[in-house]
Amino acid sequence: MLRDCRVMPYTLVAFHAHPDDEALLTSGTMARAAAEGHRVVLVVATDGELGLASTDFTAGGGLAAHRRAELEASAAVLGVARTEWLGYADSGSGEELLPDPPGRTRFVRAPVEEAAQRLAGILGEEQAEVLLTYDPNGGYGHRDHVRVHEVGARAAEIAGTPRVLEATVPRDLLVRVLRLLTKVYRFPPEFDLSSFERAYSARADITHRIPVRRFVRAKRASLRAHASQSSADGGADRTVGMLLKIPRPLFDLVFRREWYLDRAHTGPVASDVFAGLP
């Protein structure tokens, strides 16, 4: 049965690798969809237990619990109706893939079909029309992000989800912004600006450019919710902390849009993730 969007809202499922990923790439889109009356569901593959954080959060092995609580706080400010964890362990970003913890599997070791069936179950329950995942690069190449792309694509096939949008950033714009930030922010010595010249997606490949300026406040609040990911021991800023230090006018300018790829899209660049759906 076709839905009449004037009577019944669409359902959008945002699928991410770790708590805080939703804040970085899709929070504006999620807040906009929720504000427009659509149902928004947030699914994370892992609990983020291997994220870099200060000992204030890692003492006693409790980082995973902190990060899942932060995810719920972020979801609340974005208007998310449901959050789910697929049950996998964080694969980490180090060169060495750690052994699986007792009773759980590192996400990157999970068979794609198994993980896709778990996600497809949620897509089917929700009758989701739109699934947000990542581009094939996994953005900047994190192993769990690449697996999100693979699992999301297969889950959408299983569930028959009409639209899959791969969250990304035009890499030329990203490099320009980072170069601008170097004039007002001191990056750590290990920061490699040139690595972003190969990350995310080419501008020409982007099919959806979503205006979210009215929801920048929600995006900033979503970032603030992930306090464990703001800094590491010694006070060094991590990505979330660095972004929150951007002055508000510049922050609003930088984050006024979010970008996606739809492999099935034809025609001009769209400004609404639901445009063209029945």
Automatic annotation (TrEMBL):
The highest taxon in the source lineage is: Bacteria
Extract the Pfam families matched here.
PIG-L
The alphabetized UniProt keywords are: Zinc
Signal peptide range: none
Q: InterPro entries, from UniProt?
A: GlcNAc_PI_deacetylase-related, LmbE-like_dom_sf
SUPFAM superfamilies listed in its UniProt record: LmbE-like
GO MF terms here are: hydrolase activity, acting on carbon-nitrogen (but not peptide) bonds, in linear amides
Can the keyword Zinc be found in this entry's annotation?
Answer: yes
Q: Name one GO biological process term.
A: glycoside metabolic process
Kindly give the PANTHER family that the UniProt entry links to this protein. N-ACETYLGLUCOSAMINYL-PHOSPHATIDYLINOSITOL DE-N-ACETYLASE (PTHR12993:SF11), N-ACETYLGLUCOSAMINYL-PHOSPHATIDYLINOSITOL DE-N-ACETYLASE-RELATED (PTHR12993)
Entry protein name: LmbE family N-acetylglucosaminyl deacetylase
